[in-house]
Amino acid sequence: SANSPNILKTGHTDLLREYLGVLNSIGDCLAGRSVADELQKQADSMRNTDSTGFAMILPDIADNIYICGNIPGAERKYAQAIEILKTSSHGKKNLPVILNNYGNILQNLGRIRDADSVYRFAKKQMETSGDTLAPAYLNILMNLARMDIENSVFTQADSLLNKIELAGEKLSNNSLLMQNLRLSRIKLLLAQSRFAEAKSIIEPELVQSVKGHSAWYNSSINYYAAEYEIAAGNYGKALDVLRKSAELYKADAANPDNFSISLLLKKVLCLTKTGETAEAERILTTLLETSAKKFGTGSVQYIQSINELGKFYYNTGNLVNAQKYLAIAGDGILTFYSERSLNYSAFLNDLALLELQTGKLAEIESRLSRALSIRLGILGFKDQGYAGILNTRGIYYQKMGRRNDAAVTYSEALDILKSNGLANSANAALFMNNLASVSLETGNSEQASGLFNESLRIIENTFGKTNLYYAGAVNNLASIYFEKGDYSRASEYLKEAVSVIRSSYGERHPEYCKALNSLALILTEAGNYAEAESLFIRAIELKKEIFGATHPELFSYYSNFAYHFGKSDKYPLADSLYSVANNLLIEGLKKYLPGLSVEEKSDYLNTIKSGLGRYYIFNIRNLGKKPEGGGSILNQQILTKASVFSTEQRIRNDVIATGDPGLIKKLDELNIIREKLRRAYASTLDELRKNSLNIDQLEKAAAQYQNELLKVT
Fold this sequence. Notes:
With 713 residues, the protein is mainly alpha-helical. The chain is built from 35 helices and no strands.
């Protein structure tokens, strides 16, 4: 930089270009700006007399513009140069290198598919000229391999990396190309969930990381080491490694590049998992603002930030913002990645988790089936990502009262983790927790207790005691003691869960509401009515603030509170709260039941039996005070059945209103299947065999027809 004035004075175009290249490569934007300005003057002077010479200078100027943060401006310069060089016989030999750099800029702008096309065009140009051993050609192959990894085309990526490895055998092991090759290979192995193989490359590089490697390479190796720890559920350890990586790379949310964004988003994930949510939110909101300014709101970087912000709000209980941001992210993900990519599969799972919380259940099972199919189709085997989607499906089955299906699904997810060497991982602990809760619901408290304790051991070792996972585990242990009637031990565990959630995530978190509601119910059973009442009031207030006053899950909150007043002999208060609970139940049925098969409706109604049972017992016990209580029970039963029937009527009316002969025919076929189902349910086993009626097949056919009709009405 000290020699800039002397070099500028020469006015020598080739010397200025070489010098600008050096300044660009070390990221010296300001020193390069004056050289770029001088070159722009020279380029303008030859625009009409030497178009090839003019075009050859533009990429160097574009690189400086890019370094200084004006990526769209750099893209325009490159596009202008390429348009000229494509028709220039002299400039064609330089075209592939320029195309490769142009592809990098398009990728940084988030134009993934455009970048892929440019790389393939550059590859074809070099193959036509027979120059397939040049470093420039190998760099193009590297970029294509990375694109294939992003798009989950793993076999093709592996083939390209093998080709580079073969051609690069004569190069130094520490050359930039070979370093890039190792990083790309690690990225591919991690994307394929081949963790042991990835670790075998990462660990030796971590040992060598201080010996002659660049800060960028050392930072990248640390980043992938963190990826490995995240895969094993070691979020605290991963966070330490990511902080080191960010320090090496000087990653800054206020001025991010592609690698900084990836690094910071991983850091946000670990911060959220370990309860450091304030720092996580600060990074995400800064990234959202700066990625919009630097890359544009149509860029993949902006969509990544939006998606991660939506997931963050889901994990921290802000479901309104979660819905808002994930809706935007979904459209963006489909713009940049195909519907058959791991990115889209992961998004479908995230969306299903959100819908489970917000009570939009109609499309969850189809979303999860699609997510599983995509993942298995790409990888060819069941990895921990597949197990994670199965776990979401298990949660859905459990919520719908399909407890046997939930237990089988959780067990399959656990078996997949064990087969991948992750039996003691954080995910294994979470799946055990879920399986234990189903065991408890089905009366197998001994199995539940064993699973809960093993889960708690893993969670304590992995996360410590100040996170949502630990709170969930002790909450579940409380339920074991509640079932045994040991209300003192149960309340101790629940108070610990409440304290952990409040200190780590604040009170506006869905799990905090649930824990308060459970604690209040236990205190009611223990006869501690005053403390229980204040907790019920706070739990209902928070639930309404977070989810709105008509969320279906409020039925259990009001029902528990009514039970509390009934137990403490406050009849009028109990009666009025049961009335509120029952109105919520009917509204909830209208939300939950459309789109469910006959069997699914029956399973779901079983999940609310306990709440209704308390209401029926309350009315029977108090017939002397309120003789019309018996009628209230009958009215509730009629309303419940009417809600089931009305969902069928709404589908029928909507189909007829379309006037579509094809849809009306499907409706008729659905009615025929339902009539067969009605006969099947009333038949003995001998009658079923005699009439060739298979209930499972009929239920599946009815569900399929009904879901098809729902999608178009």
